[in-house]
Predict the structure of Fur family transcriptional regulator, ferric uptake regulator.
Amino acid sequence: MKTTRNTTAKTTILEIIKHSDVALSHTEIQTLSNNICDRVTIYRVLDRLVGEDVIHKIVNLDGTIKYASCHHAHNEVEHTHNHIHFSCEKCHAVTCLDTVEPTFKMPSNYLVKAVNFTLSGLCPSCL
Amino acid sequence: MKTTRNTTAKTTILEIIKHSDVALSHTEIQTLSNNICDRVTIYRVLDRLVGEDVIHKIVNLDGTIKYASCHHAHNEVEHTHNHIHFSCEKCHAVTCLDTVEPTFKMPSNYLVKAVNFTLSGLCPSCL
DNA sequence: ATAATTAATGCAACAATGTTGCGATATATA
DNA sequence: TATATATCGCAACATTGTTGCATTAATTAT
Ligand SMILES: [Zn+2]
Ligand SMILES: [Zn+2]
Ligand SMILES: [Zn+2]
Ligand SMILES: [Zn+2]
């Protein structure tokens, strides 16, 4: 079987994401990592971390992709990322709102498997 | 003042979007328009139509941008696009669900100005 | 109907972002 | 320490979106 390895690039990138209180884009991670590795490597590490369920991918309102660490217990049976994200239109910070759970009624002829909710406006720091 | 003009490109693109029951990307519009105009013109026409509030922009789960016509009455006082979108993971169709209204409770220290909700799963055709 | 104004277009050139192939490197294991 | 192979670096490429400018065409005025 295909195993996964802990490399310096992977460790560094994961630390950067874990220590950030906002979601980070590929470019932001590259800057913060001080070019510790190639641009392509960052893409591949991010894919791996998402696959390992250590971080999750967020699509921002403008279509940019951001990454944040997963704060759930890793032994959950049902593992979803159905929490809301907030995108501040002033400081552009994207944060996970793990406690907010949206409710909605869907027509029965749809099968909903995942939700991706993003709110925008002003965050507490910018309010 | 700067007026807007009705050109063949604009008319054609708007017709394509209006007659589609799913949201369309720039590339899809280009294909459907049979290369009636330059790639850049499509970008500019789409920006104009969004600015005129005739169509609205949707960010799909994968970060791709799609466009759909607005179905609201144009004399509404409050004009928002806070409806849910559904993205089918099989046929990749993105549709507007104008009737579904999500509810949620936000912490008071956030100011929510806009919402962007996308559900994914299987649409009625693929179920 | 014709001329004048300028919004809109086409084209080229560029920037940003993401992907792929492959030889070289480094990690985990024996 | 030796081996297997996951991962990396690099180059090359694809896609998507932007900008500047000369040309074209839609609207308005004459
Ligand atoms: Zn903010
Ligand atoms: Zn999150
Ligand atoms: Zn479908
Ligand atoms: Zn819509």
Notes: Residues 2-5, 7, 9-10, 37-38, 40-41, 44-45, 48 of chain B lie near DNA strand C (CB under 10 Å from a C1'). Residues B 88, 90-91, 93, 123, 125-126 surround zinc ion (ligand 3) (CB under 6 Å). Chain B has a mean pLDDT of 90. DSSP finds three helices and six strands in chain B.
